[in-house]
Amino acid sequence: MAKLILIAVALWLVITVLKRYHKNLETTEKSASTTAAENMVQCAYCGVHLPLSESIESNGRRFCCSAHAHTPDDASGH
Prior knowledge:
rod-shaped
């Protein structure tokens, strides 16, 4: 009877370890795909750096927000 309990515990332990290993592999793959490098740009108005995907383009220039994109061209920058 003790051997049967020992085998059951060992089997449960192996299954648990394999599940954690598989989950860790999935997490590693997700983090590797989401941490891809992205080009950074500088706001033409205030100079802050931000990812290209978050910037706003206006008249061929990049801005950090719509308020900066709609400022007059003769604005001093602050």
